[in-house]
Amino acid sequence: MSPRVPIHGIEILDGYIARTRDFMNDWLRFNQLLGAYTQPSVNRLQLETHFLQLKSKLARDHRVLSDRLGPDCKFTLDVINIISSATSLENIFAQSDVAVKKLQNEWHRSFITVNETLGNLEDKHKRAEAGERVNVGGLWIQAKIKKPFPWKTVIRYGGGAVAVLLVLFTVYFMRNFLGFWAPGAGDGMAITANMTDEEKLHVMISTMKAATEAGDIDMMMTAFADNFSFEQGGKTEVRALLQAYKVQGGFEGAVLDTANANIQIDGDKGKFAPVEFIGPRDQVTLAVVGERNGDRWLITGMAGLQ
Fold it and tell me: Which class does domain 7-141 fall in?
C-alpha cells in the first residue's frame, strides 16, 4: 500500500502569492530607481541608500522564493544575476550607454518571468479553490472543505454525550493550550558537561528551530524557561498563542532562519539575533534573549526587530 500523500491547505499558496506579488513590486521599484538616478536635481546619495536596501531585500526574498517554489519559480537565474552585477547606481551609470541599455533590457525580460511566476501561482490557486489538488514547490495543496459541526446529532444523543465532549475538550485545552502534562523546560536538550555557553545557546536555538519547522509546540516550549515573559504575559500565554497559531495553519511550511544570527553573551545572559521566522502568511525578524538555567540555556524573552 503506497504511503498517503500529505495535503496542505490553500493558505500556504496564499502566502506564496503575496510574497511573489511583493517581490514584483520591489522589482518595479528597482527599475524606478534606475530611471530616477539620471533626473536633474535628484538626491543621488539618498537614492543610493534606497537602492542598496532594496537590493538586500530582493536578494533575501529571492532566496526564500526560489527555495520554497522550486521549479515553480521561473526567475531563478536572471534576476539574481542582475542584482549581483548592479553593485551601485553610480557604477551602473559609469558604464557605457550600451551597457546601461543592456541592463535595462535584461530587467524587462526578467520582469516578464516574475509575472509568469505570479500568473502560474494564481492559476494554481484558482484550481485548488475549485477542488483540484495542485503541486507547488513539491507540496500538494488543496482547499480544505470545512464540514459543519453535527449539532443535531449531539443534541439527539442527549446530555451524556455533551458532557463527554465537554470533558474531552477541557482535557484537550488544558493539554495543548495550557501545557498540562507537557515536557518541562529543557527536557530533551542534548547537553554535555564539556559544552561551552555558546554551544549550549546553539542547542537552545536549534531546538527552537527544529520545533518551529515541525510545528511541534511541546518541543518548542522545552526551549522556553518557566520565567519567560513578553508583552502578552508569560510562558502559559505564549504557549496558548502559539497553539492557536498552529491551529490556523501558521506553521505549515514555516522556516526559522538563523543563518545570519550572532550570539552575544554577558555573564548568565545571552542574545541571539537576528532570527527570521518565515511562515505561509507572516514574516518577522526576532531577537531571542536567553539565560543560563542550571546546565542549560533557555529562552526568557524575545522581541521583534525593525
Answer: mainly alpha
